[in-house]
Design a protein that fits this description.
The structure holds two protein chains of two kinds.
Chain A (H helix, E strand, L loop, with lengths): L5 E3 L6 E3 L2 E11 L4 E10 L2 E6 L12 E5 L4 E4 L1 E6 L12 H10 L2 E6 L10 H14 L3 E6 L13 H7 L3 E3 L8 H13 L4 E3 L4 H4 L4 E2 L2 H6 L3 E2 L2 H17 L3 E3 L5 H12 L4 E5 L1 H5 L21 H13 L4 E2 L8 H4 L16 H10 L5 H6 L3 H7 L14 E11 L18 E11 L2 E5 L1
Parallel strand pairs in A: 3-6, 3-7, 8-9, 9-10, 10-11, 11-12, 12-15, 13-14, 15-16, 16-17
Antiparallel strand pairs in A: 1-2, 3-4, 4-5, 7-18, 18-19, 19-20
Helix pairs in contact in A: 1-2, 2-3, 4-7, 7-8, 8-10
Chain B lengths: L15 H15 L16 E6 L5 H12 L3 E6 L11 H9 L5 E6 L4 H8 L3 E7 L5 H15 L6 E5 L6 H12 L3 E5 L15 E3 L11 E4 L15 H8 L3 H4 L7 E3 L12 H4 L6 H20 L6
Parallel strand pairs in B: 1-2, 1-3, 3-4, 5-6, 5-8, 6-7, 8-9
Helix pairs in contact in B: 1-5, 1-10, 2-10, 3-4, 5-6, 5-10
Classes of the chains: A alpha/beta, B alpha/beta.
Chain lengths: ~450, ~300
């Protein structure tokens, strides 16, 4: 990042662009303040200095400024992904903190939360430190590690949340390994409150899911693939919401996939229980009908479900039951995916397709632009308790500039991610991040 | 009419006239198997590889006899005696086979969709000889041929499929096949072995076999896999046999000209009593006999048909 117009910050040891930037003429969408209007944004170094009506900010800058023309573009807070798998340490052949950060930046994100199911599991400060050091070396997006609920994600003993919190985790989750023991889940929801950490639930009754590989419905009946019923998710969402109600703990339901889970979250929210929820682009875009060709890139957990589940998720996004859109970016190599469907690993990548798939919901009239951006910025920030995801003077200049009309064909070979496991290859999508700034530094431009 | 598909992956993708063509062709091949010298030169110089990831006696022998009677060179690879046990993936095995230019690969695999994966990666024609719980298309075709032989036509027959529907590729392929050819399909079996939404596949579902037996022109009994006992699906084989097995007592309520079918291998005394399996209504060995003709027809249509284009 070093250049003639940059200086080394003495407190954070990062290169910072000295020159101011003026993002001019864009449609600024800032859900936290409700702003959706043509505005200019003035950035001074790593901070937002001012936001104002077009043409009002030129005189405020005391140094020369670089102008970023944003006519016909959306200017939004840097996107935040609550649910990413960066695979480092342990499975660097699938993804690293660096390549995952590059993929995130290219997708318009300025921050990602990385799940703890690395090898070894992120249940201690050594692993958290390693991830954060790699993130600092990459110097692209902010990386917020999520720690494990239980030691080794084994579902037996609580991990050391104090140590994890001090090291920098923003939440705890046994993602990928549902916490089957209700007593342990209760204790996690209690103990995490001491450190103001949300508990992220991968809601799946593992006995009921068994060795299933897809949603239980007419398609699984046709294909003869072993099934994972929606009830496997509903049961655990009900249990975890009940435990959140009992303990007062802060619960976040990851990757909601079933209509029943949407309904349960809606009910418990209405009762005042502290529960939030996310949905992934693949769960609000695809149905199980797409599995007819046995494409292993469509094998995900929780599975892609029926058209009625899809409709319920879209409704949940529209009415606010589902707070956030998160990718569940889960890189796998051809070793895990170029095999029989039964043997393939669960997961698809999503960082580089999440934004255009979200904008499809805007095109379809399901979300307003303000609502769609909120689910990628201010809401995820609120869920993990960080003061980001909004545009205001004095805040870090994390800004994503989107061309909502840019049309492109998804080509997995162009992805920054190290992995290629996306079922959206070949899809014609619209809407793309064209410039991404973190701390006022351009980390991606297209 | 020509058969224009590269592969036979399932019945689901076949049109009724394609099924008709296969059955007609099979009829003409039957005679070869009755000759003293059971061999014609039709596929001389062609190579057929039988790649079997699951144990099989009947299906593999049937395929091999079919290929040999058409003069093809055949090779058998089974999971227990090959590089598969050394951890080679299906695609690597396929690429290595492909390098030796086979004309047809017949695949039996425990994972649904494995033949579809293979077919996308090889030039050779792929025939699905059973993939997981998904499809067993040649079984359904030989069943159609058997019904046609005995009843004159498939259309208008009422066929009852009884047993473990959920785990049965034979049931799935037969549901597609019978529907396409105009039969009425009833299924019966324990609720634990009955997949949801079967009605949307165009079949009528029941639990008790006695509800379907009196109406059936054809009864297909399915094999119960003995290891299902440990999977919370049924309390005991004893109870299964008593309620869902076909014995003389239940058969007494059937039509006078009913056909009893079973894809084999049978568990005598479990899903079918010995006296029924060996009795006058049973066409189980006719099914086996028709299997050779159907597989000869498929090899012919996939490999000789293509020359005409």
């Amino acid at each position: 990042m070093a250049s003639p117009c940059a200086w080394l910050c003495s407190t954070c040891s990062k290169w910072v662009k000295k020159m101011s930037k003026l993002i001019r003429g864009g449609r600024v969408i800032d859900p936290a303040s409700g702003l959706d209007d043509l505005h200019d944004i003035l950035i001074d170094g790593d901070r937002i200095r001012a936001i104002g009506p077009p043409g009002s900010l030129e005189e405020k800058s005391d140094t020369s400024f670089e102008v970023i023309e944003a006519n016909d573009l959306w200017v939004v807070p840097g996107l935040i992904d609550l649910h990413t798998h960066l695979r480092e340490p342990g499975e660097e052949y699938k993804e690293t903190v660096l390549t995952g950060s590059q993929a995130a930046a290219a997708g318009g994100f300025t921050a990602v939360c990385c799940m703890p199911n690395t090898k070894p599991v992120n249940d201690n400060s050594a692993v958290t430190d390693l991830i954060l050091r790699r993130a600092a070396e990459a110097d692209l997006v902010r990386v917020f590690p999520v720690g494990a609920v239980s030691q080794g994600q084994k579902g037996e003993m609580l991990a050391e949340y104090a140590e994890l919190k001090e090291a920098g985790v923003v939440a705890v989750s046994d993602d990928g390994q549902a916490v089957m023991n209700s007593q342990l889940m209760r204790r996690a929801l209690e103990y995490a409150q001491v450190f103001d950490l949300p508990v992220i639930s991968h809601a799946e009754d593992r006995d009921l899911a068994g060795d299933g590989v897809m949603h239980e419905g007419v398609v699984s009946t046709r294909l003869g693939l072993r099934e994972i019923p929606g009830a496997a998710e509903d049961i655990m969402v009900f249990r975890d919401c009940s435990l959140a109600s009992l303990t007062g703990g802060r619960l976040h339901i990851a990757h909601v996939s079933s209509g029943g889970a949407v309904e349960l979250v809606r009910i418990f929210k209405a009762r005042g229980v502290r529960v939030t929820a996310e949905a992934t682009p693949h769960h609000f875009t695809l149905t199980d009908e797409t599995l007819e060709n046995f494409d292993t890139n469509l094998k995900v957990n929780p599975p892609i479900r029926s058209a009625s589940d899809l409709a319920a998720i879209q409704q949940g996004l529209a009415d606010g039951t589902i707070d956030a859109i998160a990718t569940d970016h889960a890189p796998h190599s051809t070793i895990e995916k170029d095999v029989e469907f039964d043997y393939a690993a669960f997961g698809m990548i999503g960082l580089e397709t999440a934004l255009p798939l979200t904008l499809r919901l805007v095109d379809q009239g399901i979300l307003s632009p303000l609502e769609a951006i909120a689910k990628l910025t201010s809401n995820p920030a609120r869920i993990i308790g960080i003061d980001l995801g909004r545009l205001a003077p004095g805040l870090p200049a994390d800004v994503t500039i989107i061309d909502p009309k840019r049309e492109f064909t998804v080509d997995v070979n162009q992805f920054r991610s190290k992995s290629r496991n996306s079922p959206f290859h070949g899809w014609d999508l619209r809407g793309k991040a064209v410039m991404v700034l973190r701390d006022g530094i351009v980390i991606f431009a297209d | 009419m020509q058969f224009r598909k590269k592969d036979l992956l399932g019945i689901k993708q076949l049109e009724p006239d394609e099924i008709e063509l296969i059955l007609e062709t099979a009829e003409t091949f039957k005679e070869i198997s009755t000759r003293p010298i059971k061999k014609v030169p039709t596929l001389r110089g062609r190579t057929v590889v039988h790649l079997f990831y699951e144990p099989s006696t009947r299906t593999r022998t049937s395929f091999e006899i079919a290929a040999k009677r058409l003069s093809a060179d055949t090779f058998n690879i089974s999971a227990s005696t090959s590089s598969i046990v050394k951890g080679e993936t299906l695609l690597d095995t396929a690429r290595n086979l492909e390098a030796m230019n086979p004309d047809v690969i017949v695949l039996r695999h425990s994972a649904a969709g494995a033949p579809h994966l293979l077919a996308r990666h090889v030039q050779a024609s792929v025939i699905n000889a059973g993939d997981g719980m998904h499809e067993h298309p040649t079984q359904a075709l030989l069943d159609l041929l058997t019904i046609r032989d005995k009843k004159g036509t498939v259309s208008g027959q009422t066929v009852a499929i009884i047993g473990d529907i959920a785990h049965s590729r034979v049931a799935r392929s037969n549901i597609w096949a019978l529907n396409k050819m105009g039969a009425r399909v009833l299924v019966a079996g324990p609720a634990t072995m009955m997949p949801h939404y079967l009605d949307r596949l165009g079949v009528e579902t029941f639990y008790n076999p006695e509800d379907v037996i009196p109406e059936a022109d054809v009864i297909m009994m399915l094999r119960i896999q003995l290891e299902r006992q440990g999977q919370m699906l049924l309390p005991s084989l004893r109870e299964y046999s008593r309620v869902f097995g076909l014995d003389e007592k239940k058969l007494a309520k059937a039509k006078a000209d009913v056909l009893i079918m079973h894809p084999g291998p049978i568990n005598r005394g479990v899903e079918i009593s010995p006296s029924v399996a060996d009795g006058p209504y049973s066409v189980i060995l006719d099914q086996v006999n028709n299997g050779v003709a159907v597989r000869m027809a498929l090899l012919y249509l996939l490999k000789v048909g293509e020359k005409d284009e």
